[in-house]
Amino acid sequence: MTTPTSQTTKNAFVSLKVAAEDKNNDHVSKVTSFAVDPRVLEVNEGFNPRPVDPKHMAEMSLAMRSGATFPPLDVWVEDGHIFIVDGHHRHAAALDAISKGSDIKSLECRHFRGNDADRVAHSLNSAGGLALTPLQLGVRYQTLIGFGWTEQRIADRRGKSLQHVKDMIQLAEANSDVHQAVNAGQISGTAALKMVKQHGSKAGAVIRDRFEHAQANGKTKVKPKALAETTRAKVSDKQIVDWLVANIKFTQTYSSGMARHYELDLTVPVAVADSDDLRTLVINAISNRITT
Fold this sequence. Notes:
5-stranded mixed β-sheet, Conserved hypothetical protein from pyrococcus furiosus pfu- 392566-001, ParB domain, alpha/beta
């Protein structure tokens, strides 16, 4: 049992309400909340970075119908509309519970104070919701950048490293084919970021190639092991020559004096890691063929 402080013993408060209303007390303060009918709460289209997860929502709905209570939702009011800042799953669960016959008349809500950027930042630090994926974080960070926040300010607000913020934004700025693969569950956001760093604009094609290879082997997702760069030290000069003979088409263009000039057409699969160095490019192509 904790020993009461002298301040608490002296005032001998009989309730938190009394303590909060005592102007001489600075240990307890009152937070105002409101009971709001969940049917009048509105979802601002595009605000919530997390799509409502049906399974998570259903579990919360069942808990509500069984009498469980949840933390208050954070909302903001604009032009007579009450929009949700944090608590989209709780709201969806309440509506689901009502549709199944539960007599839920209200949800506890707190009025969020802050501007549009503050609302976005607040939704990122929500402790009650499902964790955001790396891609969802990156898109949200981009929104804050659009509001004029610096990457360092975002990192400080979230308690994350500056590199973390840069990485998530880099993933968010990847081509749409990368986003589609992540959203479809073909690859994790972390693994996709690695591909973006290695292959740049060609990352989507590499992921697609690896996913098709995974499917051919009975898998439903690209595993990090399949994305690991293959070792290049084992590629011999003979392999390089044999590959060039098999993959280069050439035509003679003209002759000058004692020399003949040729035009070479080198073709490599799009999934091969690009390079400005011919030897490295060929080794990448040979390694890709070996591993796939």
